[in-house]
């Protein structure tokens, strides 16, 4: 697949909850192997946008195409097939506390009935734990891991089904700056190794700058500023985009 190719195409997407207008004409593209950072204040609709992308919510109007397919038109089976191509880790989604790292990693494979041998499953788990730099944690429980380690295992678990798109919803929230840096490097490594296209939702401009090929700022339900870090910041015309920058640097 060519890097100019669009893997996600969003056109005039709108979504309200009752009187609350959340998305008010979102236009956005994600290119193959790109890392696109989505910024926006809390409650601006960032998570709603990626929930529409994986068919957990449906838009009121407009278009959300992933790999050329209109998500809202997919029936159960093709939607499930599509979801396997998209790895998503939501803010709230955590590891299962009663399962070891190995069992947590294995769970998506078992649930999706992949016909893999024990040997193949183990090889895949080991490869991914190596990729995230945590091979020694395989038999540990989540309670024995640090916050940063849990995030890394979460990313490894998401990768086990070989997704082509990775959605990271606030991957560095609640982590110290050094651990944030590690997660940022992990996001870059994952792209390099697995050739994924990624959307990273974050409040953290350092994360945005380190990882993103392009930034997109969600304001009043639309993406008004989209471009490279230097295009969007620090010379933003919109005072609110500028204030994001001033607050962080
Ligand atoms: P964020 O940008 O912080 O991720 P969200 O996308 O989670 O924000 O939410 C945007 C707005 O939509 C919030 O005001 C939230 O309360 C509201 N919202 C999100 N999901 C639902 C839902 N399923 N039902 C009603 N309101 C919702
Ligand atoms: Mg959110």
TrEMBL record:
SMART domains: AAA. Pfam families: ABC_tran. Residues 8-245 form the ABC transporter domain. Gene3D superfamilies: P-loop containing nucleotide triphosphate hydrolases. Keywords: ATP-binding, Nucleotide-binding, Transport. GO terms for molecular function: ATP binding; ATP hydrolysis activity. InterPro entries: AAA+_ATPase, ABC_transporter-like_ATP-bd, ABC_transporter-like_CS, P-loop_NTPase. This is Phospholipid/cholesterol/gamma-HCH transport system ATP-binding protein. It comes from Algoriphagus alkaliphilus.
